[in-house]
Specification:
The chain is built from eight helices and no strands. With 294 residues, it is mainly α. It has two domains: 1-146, no CATH class; 150-294. The two termini are 37 Å apart.
Length: 294
């Protein structure tokens, strides 16, 4: 392994970890009501280093970590471009990630300057998930290289798209204030009987897609286990169970900051696991026996 390859692996791994942490910290900012603790952008109360008290400690920490993620994405893009002869798609994805982080910064500024419009806040989250997917794939390709025998490509694309839609829908539930549109009823939604549209419908759509997605993810995990990726398939199932439990606790017992944060982090880990499922195991384990050999 060359020094350049080691550096790219280390940097991409750090970028993915920092991005997941940023998702969790963003959830803390929203849950604590600290989104407008810094009323201006990119400064905080006109200061580069404000006093880290009250909501400022969460909001400004989020901005600092976001800046670190942006810096890391630039470093990863430079390293991947330098090694583009080894993997051109990886280089393009790294450059796309830089573009996404710039869009993310613009949406973050709009969120603050426009005083938290729900649609912009939801788009901010959606862009963060796209960035996580692109940087995660850059990291995977840096560690494992191109995957020649991908038997789950079609299923993975469909399942990842469904999971992405569910995560963005969950963000819409939060930002449009639909978290308690069904009260604290974790199973039903009585207000839906008297309101055909609006927040209850958004909440129940999120729940129904979640139920469907549980079955889809378990089926996908079984498919992956059947072609050799048993360990990662087991991880996916455990994350699904954890996410269900966290979602029920969030609705049933009130919005607890640690629970909501864990729910956001597990959602990001689910997306990463689904995107990489079956492509982190050694390729020899993923090849089925040929008819001639049988």
């Amino acid at each position: 392994m060359t020094t350049k390859t080691s550096m790219l692996r280390a940097t991409t791994g750090t970028l993915v970890v920092a991005t997941v942490a940023l998702v969790g910290l963003g959830s803390v900012v929203h849950s604590t009501g600290a989104s407008l603790a810094c009323p201006d952008w990119p400064l905080c109360g006109g200061e580069v280093f404000p006093a880290m008290v009250g909501g400022v400690q969460f909001e400004h920490s989020h901005r600092i970590l976001a800046g670190l993620v942006a810096l890391l994405s630039g470093v990863v893009a430079a390293l991947a471009w330098r090694e583009r002869a080894d993997d051109r798609l990886r280089a393009r994805l790294a450059l796309a990630a830089v573009g996404l982080v710039l869009v993310q910064a613009a949406l973050g500024a709009m969120t603050v300057l426009m005083r938290l419009p729900p649609a912009v806040s939801t788009a901010h989250y959606a862009t963060s998930m796209l960035f996580l997917l692109s940087s995660g794939e850059v990291a995977r390709r840096s560690w494992r290289g191109e995957f020649a025998a991908d038997q789950l490509a079609r299923e993975r694309t469909i399942v990842t798209a469904l999971l992405f839609a569910q995560l963005v829908l969950g963000a819409a539930v939060r930002h449009f204030g639909a978290g308690y549109a069904c009260g604290r009823d974790a199973w039903g939604c009585a207000p839906l009987l008297t309101s055909a549209f609006g927040l209850p419908l958004l909440q129940i759509t999120h729940r129904v897609l979640g139920v469907v997605l549980v079955g889809v993810l378990v089926w996908f995990a079984r498919r992956a286990a059947a072609v050799g990726a048993r360990l990662q398939a087991g991880l996916l199932v455990n994350l699904v169970v954890a996410q269900i439990a966290l979602g029920l606790v969030t609705v049933g017992s009130g919005i607890s900051i640690p629970i909501v944060t864990a729910h956001a982090v597990v959602g990001a880990l689910l997306l990463l696991t689904t995107m990489t499922l079956g492509r982190l195991a050694p390729q020899r384990r993923l090849r089925t026996t040929s008819p001639a050999a049988t």
